[in-house]
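Q: May I have one protein plus its fold?
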Amino acid sequence: MLGKAFTPKRLRPVISRQFFRAGLSDVPNTLFGILFYITLIITYFIYFPNLYLVIRDFNPILFLFITFLFWVVVPLTLSAITMLGIYFYLDIKIFNRSKSMEDKLADYLVFVSTNLKGGMSFEASLWSAIKPEFGLLAEEMGLVSKKVMTGSDLITSLTEFAQKYPSPIIRRSMNLIISEIESGGKISDLIDRVISDLKKTRLLKQEMAASTLTYIIFISVIILIISPLLFALSYQLLDVMISFMGRFAGMNIPNMPISFAEGEGVDPTQFKIFSYFAISIISIFASMIISIINKGTIKSGLKYMPMFLATSIIVYIITQSVLAGVFSSLVI
C-alpha cells in the first residue's frame, strides 16, 4: 500500500502498461515500498555521520529547515534515480522481447499462409499456426486467438497486439493485414508479400552487419588493447620521469634546458584513477558506437558493455604490471 500510495495516479497506467509489456502482469508495489524504506535508511546514514555534525550548532530554525530540506530532497532524489533505473531495465527488456518476436514473425506467417491456402478461416489459421518454437510470439498470438474466440473483434485484437510493443516491423505487418481484412481482399497473397519483405529485411540487416565487421574489429582493438596499453605506458613514463626528477632535484647543473626543481606535479596515484575512469568511459561509449554500427540501435549493445569494460580494465592492469617490470631496469 505504501508503494502504491507514493506512485502518482497519472503515472499508474503508464507504469502498469510498461510492466505488462515487459511480461510482468502485476506492478510490484511491495518492491516500491521496500525501496522507499531503503532510501530512508541511506538518508539516515548520510545525514547523521556527515551533515548533522556540521549543522548541529546552527540556529534552531535554520537547523530544522536544513534538516527538513535534506530529508525531503535526498529520499526523493534516490527514489527518482531508482525509478529511472527500473524504467531503463524494463525498456531494455521490452526491446529484447520485441526483437525476439520480429525474428519469428516471418516463420509464423508462413504457417498462417499455409493454413489459409488449405481452406481454414483467418482466425483458425492464427490459432493453428502457433508452435512452441515461436516462443513469445506464440504466447502473444495465443492471447489474440483467445480474445477472438471469446467474442472480441479480430481487428481490435490485432491492433492491440500491434500497439503493445514498440516494433515498427510488427506494426507495419499487422496494419497491412488489418487493412486487407477490412477491404475483403485475398489475405494469403498479402501475407506472402509480407513474408517476402520480412525475409528481405532480415537478409539486408545481415549483409549490413557483415559489411561493417571491419569497423567493429578496429574499434574493438582500440578499446581492448590500444587504449589500456597507452594509459599503462603513460603511467610508467610518468613514474620514471618523477624518479629521475627526484634524483636531479638537489643538483645544481648549469646551462640545463630543463628545470628539476621540486614543485607541484602530476600525482601517479591520481593519474591511475583518471586512467580507470577514462578507460571506463571509452569502453562504454565505444560499445554504444559498435551497437549502432552493427544493430542500428544502442539498446542492442548494452549487453556488450560489461564485457568491454571488464576486458579493457583487465588488459590495463596486466599491461601495467608487464611494463612496470620492463621499466624497473631504468630506475636504479
User: Anything to note?
Assistant: The chain has a mean pLDDT of 81. The CA atoms of residues 144 and 157 lie 6 Å apart.
